[in-house]
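Feature request, filed as a ticket because there's no other form

It would be nice if the structure record came with a short human-readable summary line next to the tokens. Right now we just get the raw output. Example of a typical job, pasted below so the devs can see what we mean:
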Amino acid sequence: MVVPQKKFANGKRNDSTKSFKPMKKPFKKTKDDVAARSEAMALQLEDVPDFPRGGGTSLSKKEREKLYEEVDAEFDADERVSKKSKGGKSKKRIPSDLDDLGLLFGGGLHGKRPRYANKITTKNISPGMKLLGVVTEVNQKDIVISLPGGLRGLVRASEVSDFTDRGIEDDENELLGDIFSVGQLVPCIVLELDDDKKEAGKRKIWLSLRLSLLHKGFSFDSFQLGMVFSANVKSIEDHGSILHFGLPSITGFIEISDDGNQESGMKTGQLIQGVVTKIDRDRKIVHLSSDPDSVAKCLTKDLSGMSFDLLIPGMMVNARVQSVLENGILFDFLTYFNGTVDLFHLKNPLSNKSWKDEYNQNKTVNARILFIDPSSRAVGLTLSPHVVCNKAPPLHVFSGDIFDEAKVVRIDKSGLLLELPSKPTPTPAYVSFKEGNHIRVRVLGLKQMEGLAVGTLKESAFEGPVFTHSDVKPGMVTKAKVISVDTFGAIVQFSGGLKAMCPLRHMSEFEVTKPRKKFKVGAELVFRVLGCKSKRITVTYKKTLVKSKLPILSSYTDATEGLVTHGWITKIEKHGCFVRFYNGVQGFVPRFELGLEPGSDPDSVFHVGEVVKCRVTSAVHGTQRITLNDSIKLGSIVSGIIDTITSQAVIVRVKSKSVVKGTISAEHLADHHEQAKLIMSLLRPGYELDKLLVLDIEGNNMALSSKYSLIKLAEELPSDFNQLQPNSVVHGYVCNLIENGCFVRFLGRLTGFAPRSKAIDDPKADVSESFFVGQSVRANIVDVNQEKSRITLSLKQSSCASVDASFVQEYFLMDEKISDLQSSDITKSDCSWVEKFSIGSLIKGTIQEQNDLGVVVNFDNINNVLGFIPQHHMGGATLVPGSVVNAVVLDISRAERLVDLSLRPELLNNLTKEVSNSSKKKRKRGISKELEVHQRVSAVVEIVKEQHLVLSIPEHGYTIGYASVSDYNTQKLPVKQFSTGQSVVASVKAVQNPLTSGRLLLLLDSVSGTSETSRSKRAKKKSSCEVGSVVHAEITEIKPFELRVNFGNSFRGRIHITEVLVNDASTSDEPFAKFRVGQSISARVVAKPCHTDIKKTQLWELSVKPAMLKDSSEFNDTQESEQLEFAAGQCVIGYVYKVDKEWVWLAVSRNVTARIFILDTSCKAHELEEFERRFPIGKAVSGYVLTYNKEKKTLRLVQRPLLFIHKSIANGGGSKTDKPDSSIPGDDDTLFIHEGDILGGRISKILPGVGGLRVQLGPYVFGRVHFTEINDSWVPDPLDGFREGQFVKCKVLEISSSSKGTWQIELSLRTSLDGMSSADHLSEDLKNNDNVCKRFERIEDLSPDMGVQGYVKNTMSKGCFIILSRTVEAKVRLSNLCDTFVKEPEKEFPVGKLVTGRVLNVEPLSKRIEVTLKTVNAGGRPKSESYDLKKLHVGDMISGRIRRVEPFGLFIDIDQTGMVGLCHISQLSDDRMENVQARYKAGESVRAKILKLDEEKKRISLGMKSSYLMNGDDDKAQPLSEDNTSMECDPINDPKSEVLAAVDDFGFQETSGGTSLVLAQVESRASIPPLEVDLDDIEETDFDSSQNQEKLLGANKDEKSKRREKQKDKEEREKKIQAAEGRLLEHHAPENADEFEKLVRSSPNSSFVWIKYMAFMLSLADIEKARSIAERALRTINIREEEEKLNIWVAYFNLENEHGNPPEESVKKVFERARQYCDPKKVYLALLGVYERTEQYKLADKLLDEMIKKFKQSCKIWLRKIQSSLKQNEEAIQSVVNRALLCLPRHKHIKFISQTAILEFKCGVADRGRSLFEGVLREYPKRTDLWSVYLDQEIRLGEDDVIRSLFERAISLSLPPKKMKFLFKKFLEYEKSVGDEERVEYVKQRAMEYANSTLA
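Raw output as currently delivered:
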């Protein structure tokens, strides 16, 4: 909406109060404006001229005043009269003006009520203001938000959320588009306001959506149930999403709904709204619900003490009308706050003039907060129905729509409210006119937040052909007014208000040099539209195009063969011209179609921008190319225009047929790395690159290069193996670097590899430090292997040195290109200064100033150009500022606008002679004749630049030349140092010409290596050198780690730092302090040069150690190899040469290096923090050898002496790095870490819960710090203050080996341990309070009633475990957790909580400790002691109060004892009782009789039956049935029972293991109908567990016998019960449900009865009833009756397998439940039996595979797998056997193999069974049990010959007599069964022979 201006009494208006101001000056368009995204229509309203009600206008002042007076005449008479008086004017108009200016009203600042409602405008919006907005655009790097009042704001991608890891990347558009959607309501805060530099009156509003700013001032107490909060999705988890509120330490969580809808559409970073449903104050977690209906209806509650900072835009409040204002309503809400609603945010957007009548005082409505201004405390509200429902107002119209019948609803001072007949609902619009009429209106813009359209009634808006961007069509001719002219072109405006650009080339048919003279601002001209892309309109004023009558070509689909049309030339190449048409369509005219004369060039006939008439000869629509007949190949030269620039590459639009775009990486912009970086920073989109080499083609994209070296030799670059010739040098570029070498690529994918030995001359140099990716190199082809597709290269400078000056020539060419880019805005006249200077010429200048470096010179008539004369070139002259000098030009730097000059007499005199003898041109020609290419000359260094040298050649008249100091392959290597005046030898490679920028180019012999080779050869001929000889040497250079010397006749050598000093760690940090350059010293040659074929680095190894110089008799060539032997633990000294974050690298000798890990350098944390500072380069460091790699000559050192202790571990001994490198003698690598060592460590991970810390001790060694070993004192949070990556000092407590063969190291951080802390750091608390720090490492250290402290390890409904130390844990029962009842143990005793208690019971044998956390009882004694059952007797009558009522009975506090008893439901009444809770209440007084006392478990059973109370003296009360006693001991419900005894996790379950019981149970189940339990479903007691149990019981014979008696009694009772049940069913089988109900009540724990009941229901076809009985049985059977419950589960499996729908899913659900309540292994076996009985082999195989993974160490599971495979006749039995033997423990192998062999004999192939038996008997030949089984299987097969031969083998063994007797007896029995008397006698005879031999 456009708001018209308030009018003054005199009919004039104050233009400064307008919302949208007219433009004060012509629009000045910049390059950035052309590239920027255009504003939406709401902001383009300002650009529309002649807008009648408040918009920008191009009318004159008088016309505007006349129009204002016409509109003012329509206002009522009272208002006109009031505005005529001056007093009225001053009193009434000032507040109106101020209000119109946007002063916001805050109810808390003053007592006055406002006259107008608060509205947001560009003038009153300020940083810090919070607003509600709606997303209108989601762009690549920002989001556009529509704000109240029609304003628009921008949100950068970095301000979208608080997540710092979100950057602006290539895929940012997808990211922002995924988490934000157009039309989404978002709260935002104003960050800053920028005045738009392009147009006055516009302000750019920058917003932020970061919740840390919006929720600033919030605390955890601010979150209340039912409130709505915005949050960012931080991560998506399995059960919901973690939310971020922008507040530290406060986390949100939103759960996934049952149908999973919550998860769909929710993505990381998304901004959502949710209602607070739950607040976890302990963990500071807020649970939200994002249900849209709940969020929309949630009303903020009136909380006491709510501050202004807690108000958030979008918050819905209950508001009460306080008063009606002129343009809105004043509300109060939330007791303390006031807010206003303006006219456009009322409940009815189409309210008429009587809108005030709808809002009576004190009326309450629901409203949402629209904006909040913290500075003025002003609040804006909205009653818009859509916004109140938390939705953006819908808009059914678009900018430019015309409505002929718009109804006038209301007339305001500021404009006119219309009802537009849009569909499906009318849309309100706002313009100016009379009330009541139907008028014609055109939509000008939209206010999305208000749901309002802004219209115009101006006639020009209806008449103009162009009103919106959608009206613009390429090729249309229209009038436009010039509003701005600049160097890049003109900005024009159509009659509808849209703006367009007319580029400079399109302002005329010819080139325009002065555009401001061509176009006058305000002129109205005729243009033709060229195209409209991304709301950017381009037009042309070329007369030929504007007046053209030919068809318009605006798309590639319109291009048909033979079409004749007009276009304009955009680029001219040798092979043709590029022609562009409308809307970006481009075509190509080949050279032969241009009609050129032979020998002429296209650019001589045509010029860029020329309009031409052309005919389409061919068009390929799919590739969007017209008439393009040339194809691009590898190695071809192309041109292109820069499209976009990224941080790593330049994207170029290549003018070609099949390739759309090309990519130039940053390294390929120039051969010189630094120049490439500079060019990258200077390039801009739109720049044209004329020469680009096609390196590779992939699809529609090309890899291009702008390297001069590659472009120059493009035709010679190879692209195939056949083009390569060995020993040839080829140009290429480095594409990848690895440690072992360098990859060089040519054209396409042709790549060669240069090994490290062939890549660098220096053998010790690092490849990564010598080359960089993208570097231009010259490669020597060493070998080409086409079979293996391998190319071996050499990059050594000695074999690949440049033979020309192309490297320095490219440098100067690129320097000119850089200067052109830097001065792209400077005209030719400004650049003409370069032509006034020529190399070697005289120039006159004036001295400006003098300093220590030289003299600065000014030049007449040349501005902004300086000259500089260095001190060396002063020529001894004394120069005074202001004096005039004539100097020789040595060098020109165009980019820096600097000229290097010289006053040296020899240069001046020679030049003067040349000038006097001949002209300048003649002199140059003479020089050119004198100097020839490839001529070798002697030159003098005049100036040393960074990349090149300025030289003079005295022999040729001091001609100035230039030479590079490096080469292609040595760009990254250290450059040889040159000094001014130094003489060098060079070769002439190029004379002065335009390609060399007028410079003479030379090539130094030091770069090409020419003279070095010859000198080395001459030196070798003249003299020789032998190892061991003492020589006199002269120091030529001092480096950090070596001395460079010359000795003998041209020999060069080096003295390593280790050959200077004695191996002493106390050596000075400056080992070369006593040496200086030029000093003569005596040294001994100790080794030959490492690489004799490299002349440059042919350095002999020398030594100046005193021991070396004393005696030479023992010196020989083997001394070097002897120094390469090191022993473990040997102390060595090295010198630091490199330090990184993890390692310090030492030079031990000239060939051996060493490294020390950071954690091996100290055990103190503060020293480890300063690791890099402690080891400066060159420092002598000693260490002890841990490992040594002979091949790499690398040592691994530690700074602690190594001890040979048995229980230790090598740091990295088990790693893949150090172990192969270890060549230390001996088999034991465990030399490094020992128990008791004090080490330095680094926290690598903070383990969750009470896991403690994981600490790194070495590169591959980690230890664990137990939760109780972190701190000396028992503190609530031991992990507080620790972070990952923190260095710590720790002590090794224990080293043990795990079953997997890895080492486990237990550490401690406790400072009280020996060696962990110094006396000054030991706190007073640790000295005085020993109990606080005490840890009980052994159970024997504990005794009952001892006070202990510990941390909760885990908590469940039946109690918890606590850790007392790293080796001792204890259990706490539910009844001992607290003095009061604990409802939710998991919440009150979370993991990690510090607790204090006392020891109740200690059992050293079973490793059990029980602790109570209770204080004491009423009598002052511990509660465990108060249970003295000796005071009570069975049959006593007691009185007490009901403590708790449970469904199964009552817990009763016995008076005067403090003890609690249980009265079971069956003992409450003689009659059956259905509901205990309805009859008894807690606290009631009752009387009961003691029925049973269990002193061992301290349990009291009570009875309250009337028969007990009436006959109180009858001690022979009916004993409780087994069922009732079991219920009394119910561990779930009895708080005094051992509730945790049966939980497997606690490890306290006693396993009853006799086989007789299992067999008895199986026999009793033999008569079970179809739901029976098969024998296979019941697992016998595991062999290992029974064995361990026997060991445990064997420790105490009395305890063992006692348990056996109990087990025997239990078995007998079970048999009696089962027999009674059987008899009952025999005599009277139940015939109906009632009889079964009686039976199950009498035997509730009998699975037999329950299964019978289920079978009865199945016989009646009542499946659901059978399921309910199964569920009931599972709930009723006592938890200790595991076997009975398992029977029910198996029956349940059978039921679902037969009647489930579908059966597989139904069985799976029941199976998952059964796994949670029973032994999983038994459940798996039971289900497997069900599948096998029903022949569902696929399901059985699937289940078996799962069982093998889960119970891979169970022999029985593997045997079942073997049995199943054999039944199905599978062949791969051996693979299953091999897998089983790998997984099973060693002691189970015999059992498995023998059982597998038996199965083979029974179900499989007998030969396989024999091979298995034979294999195990070879290993255990004296196992008679194996022989017996083997013989039994063969006897069963009945092959007599095989059986007798096997018996013969068995009786031939040398076994004890007892075992031999068994074998003979078995043999005899077999022969008797066969019936052969001879064989019987034979066996007897063999037995006698054995007996005689044994007796003898």
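Something like this underneath would help us a lot:
The chain is about 25% helix and 30% strand.
The radius of gyration is 49 Å.
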